[in-house]
Write a structure and sequence with these properties.
Layout lengths: L17 E3 L13 E3 L15 H5 L2 H6 L19 H10 L13 E2 L2 E2 L1 E6 L1 H7 L1 H11 L5 H9 L7 E6 L6 E6 L2
Antiparallel strand pairs: 1-2, 3-4, 5-6, 6-7
Bound molecules: zinc ion (2 copies).
Length: about 180
Protein backbone atom coordinates (compact mmCIF):
# COMPACT_ATOMS: atom_id res chain seq x y z
CA UNK A 1 0.00 0.00 0.00
CA UNK A 2 1.36 3.42 -0.91
CA UNK A 3 1.76 5.92 1.87
CA UNK A 4 -0.29 9.10 1.57
CA UNK A 5 1.41 12.21 0.19
CA UNK A 6 2.27 14.96 2.64
CA UNK A 7 3.00 18.29 0.98
CA UNK A 8 5.18 19.53 3.84
CA UNK A 9 6.73 16.27 4.94
CA UNK A 10 7.43 14.37 1.71
CA UNK A 11 9.26 11.38 3.16
CA UNK A 12 8.17 10.72 6.76
CA UNK A 13 9.62 7.21 6.63
CA UNK A 14 13.15 8.40 5.89
CA UNK A 15 12.79 11.20 8.45
CA UNK A 16 11.81 8.58 11.04
CA UNK A 17 8.35 9.97 11.86
CA UNK A 18 6.54 7.02 10.26
CA UNK A 19 7.73 3.45 10.72
CA UNK A 20 6.77 0.05 9.37
CA UNK A 21 4.68 -1.48 12.15
CA UNK A 22 2.05 -4.09 12.93
CA UNK A 23 0.36 -1.70 15.40
CA UNK A 24 -3.37 -1.11 15.04
CA UNK A 25 -4.41 2.50 14.47
CA UNK A 26 -6.58 3.84 17.26
CA UNK A 27 -8.44 6.07 14.80
CA UNK A 28 -9.39 3.65 11.96
CA UNK A 29 -8.94 0.42 13.93
CA UNK A 30 -6.79 -1.12 11.20
CA UNK A 31 -3.23 -2.37 11.10
CA UNK A 32 -2.13 -0.88 7.79
CA UNK A 33 1.59 -1.61 7.98
CA UNK A 34 2.82 1.83 9.03
CA UNK A 35 2.45 3.86 12.19
CA UNK A 36 3.25 7.44 13.14
CA UNK A 37 5.85 7.79 15.91
CA UNK A 38 6.28 11.56 15.97
CA UNK A 39 4.82 14.00 18.51
CA UNK A 40 1.05 14.07 19.16
CA UNK A 41 -0.51 17.08 20.86
CA UNK A 42 -3.71 15.89 22.54
CA UNK A 43 -5.33 15.46 25.92
CA UNK A 44 -4.68 11.72 25.86
CA UNK A 45 -1.40 9.99 25.17
CA UNK A 46 -1.21 8.55 21.66
CA UNK A 47 2.11 6.85 21.27
CA UNK A 48 2.74 4.89 18.08
CA UNK A 49 -0.97 4.21 17.54
CA UNK A 50 -2.02 6.54 14.71
CA UNK A 51 -1.58 5.56 11.07
CA UNK A 52 -0.36 8.06 8.46
CA UNK A 53 -3.59 7.72 6.44
CA UNK A 54 -5.65 8.99 9.37
CA UNK A 55 -3.27 11.95 9.68
CA UNK A 56 -3.45 12.69 5.94
CA UNK A 57 -7.25 12.73 5.67
CA UNK A 58 -7.75 14.66 8.91
CA UNK A 59 -9.71 11.87 10.59
CA UNK A 60 -7.21 11.42 13.43
CA UNK A 61 -7.52 15.12 14.19
CA UNK A 62 -11.32 14.95 14.07
CA UNK A 63 -11.69 11.80 16.14
CA UNK A 64 -8.96 12.40 18.71
CA UNK A 65 -8.65 16.18 18.76
CA UNK A 66 -4.97 15.67 18.10
CA UNK A 67 -2.50 17.86 16.24
CA UNK A 68 0.94 16.74 15.13
CA UNK A 69 2.78 20.01 14.73
CA UNK A 70 2.45 22.74 17.33
CA UNK A 71 0.86 25.80 15.66
CA UNK A 72 3.09 28.09 17.71
CA UNK A 73 6.20 26.37 16.38
CA UNK A 74 5.52 27.35 12.75
CA UNK A 75 7.99 29.96 11.53
CA UNK A 76 11.58 30.31 12.66
CA UNK A 77 11.46 34.08 12.96
CA UNK A 78 7.73 34.87 12.92
CA UNK A 79 8.05 37.25 9.97
CA UNK A 80 5.84 35.45 7.52
CA UNK A 81 2.10 35.99 7.28
CA UNK A 82 0.73 32.51 7.02
CA UNK A 83 -2.63 31.43 5.72
CA UNK A 84 -5.02 29.94 8.24
CA UNK A 85 -5.57 27.01 5.82
CA UNK A 86 -1.84 26.36 5.75
CA UNK A 87 -1.55 26.36 9.53
CA UNK A 88 -4.47 23.92 9.66
CA UNK A 89 -2.95 21.60 7.08
CA UNK A 90 0.35 21.60 8.93
CA UNK A 91 -0.92 21.13 12.45
CA UNK A 92 -3.85 18.79 11.73
CA UNK A 93 -2.86 16.80 8.63
CA UNK A 94 0.95 16.68 8.52
CA UNK A 95 3.23 14.36 10.50
CA UNK A 96 5.57 16.21 12.84
CA UNK A 97 9.02 15.09 13.85
CA UNK A 98 10.82 14.46 17.10
CA UNK A 99 13.38 16.98 18.28
CA UNK A 100 15.27 17.29 21.53
CA UNK A 101 13.60 20.58 22.32
CA UNK A 102 10.38 22.17 21.12
CA UNK A 103 10.22 21.55 17.37
CA UNK A 104 10.08 24.47 14.98
CA UNK A 105 9.02 24.66 11.35
CA UNK A 106 10.82 26.68 8.68
CA UNK A 107 8.76 29.06 6.53
CA UNK A 108 9.79 30.88 3.34
CA UNK A 109 8.01 32.68 0.49
CA UNK A 110 4.89 32.96 2.68
CA UNK A 111 4.58 29.21 2.85
CA UNK A 112 5.84 26.47 5.10
CA UNK A 113 8.89 24.61 3.90
CA UNK A 114 9.02 20.86 3.45
CA UNK A 115 10.81 18.97 6.17
CA UNK A 116 13.85 17.09 4.84
CA UNK A 117 14.97 15.52 8.07
CA UNK A 118 17.31 15.51 11.01
CA UNK A 119 20.97 15.89 10.22
CA UNK A 120 24.33 15.50 11.88
CA UNK A 121 27.66 16.43 10.35
CA UNK A 122 27.73 13.26 8.22
CA UNK A 123 24.34 14.02 6.68
CA UNK A 124 25.24 17.69 6.19
CA UNK A 125 28.45 16.76 4.36
CA UNK A 126 26.40 14.52 2.09
CA UNK A 127 23.79 17.23 1.52
CA UNK A 128 26.43 19.74 0.54
CA UNK A 129 27.62 23.25 1.19
CA UNK A 130 24.19 24.91 0.99
CA UNK A 131 22.88 22.74 3.82
CA UNK A 132 25.97 23.42 5.91
CA UNK A 133 25.61 27.16 5.32
CA UNK A 134 21.93 27.05 6.32
CA UNK A 135 22.87 25.48 9.64
CA UNK A 136 25.81 27.82 10.17
CA UNK A 137 23.53 30.81 9.54
CA UNK A 138 21.05 29.40 12.06
CA UNK A 139 23.75 29.15 14.73
CA UNK A 140 25.02 32.67 14.05
CA UNK A 141 28.57 31.35 14.34
CA UNK A 142 31.35 32.80 12.19
CA UNK A 143 33.61 30.58 10.13
CA UNK A 144 36.28 29.51 12.63
CA UNK A 145 37.17 27.01 15.35
CA UNK A 146 33.92 27.50 17.30
CA UNK A 147 31.79 26.70 14.26
CA UNK A 148 33.99 23.73 13.31
CA UNK A 149 33.74 22.32 16.82
CA UNK A 150 29.96 22.69 16.75
CA UNK A 151 29.73 21.24 13.25
CA UNK A 152 31.74 18.11 14.18
CA UNK A 153 29.53 17.60 17.24
CA UNK A 154 26.30 17.68 15.22
CA UNK A 155 24.77 14.23 15.24
CA UNK A 156 21.53 12.91 13.78
CA UNK A 157 20.75 10.67 16.75
CA UNK A 158 22.40 12.17 19.81
CA UNK A 159 22.36 15.93 19.59
CA UNK A 160 23.20 18.62 19.00
CA UNK A 161 21.07 17.91 15.93
CA UNK A 162 20.21 20.06 12.92
CA UNK A 163 16.73 20.05 11.34
CA UNK A 164 16.58 20.79 7.64
CA UNK A 165 13.80 22.17 5.46
CA UNK A 166 13.47 23.28 1.85
CA UNK A 167 11.30 26.08 0.49
CA UNK A 168 8.74 24.64 -1.95
CA UNK A 169 8.95 27.74 -4.16
CA UNK A 170 12.58 28.86 -4.43
CA UNK A 171 14.35 25.75 -3.01
CA UNK A 172 16.17 27.77 -0.35
CA UNK A 173 17.27 25.51 2.47
CA UNK A 174 16.34 26.43 6.00
CA UNK A 175 17.58 24.95 9.23
CA UNK A 176 17.69 25.26 12.94
CA UNK A 177 19.53 23.26 15.54
CA UNK A 178 19.09 22.28 19.13
CA UNK A 179 21.66 21.36 21.69
CA UNK A 180 20.66 18.18 23.43
ZN1 LIG B 1 -5.71 4.97 10.88
ZN1 LIG C 1 11.43 30.57 -0.79
Amino acid sequence: MNLPQFTYHPDPVSSGSVQPSTNTCISCDQARGYIYVGPVYAVEDYEACICPWCIADGSAHQRLGATFIDEDSIGLDAEEELDEALVTELSQRTPGFNGWQQERWFTHCNDAGEFIGRAGHTELLALGVEAMTAVQDATGLEEGPQWHRFFSALDKDHGPTAYLFRCRHCSTLGAYQDNH
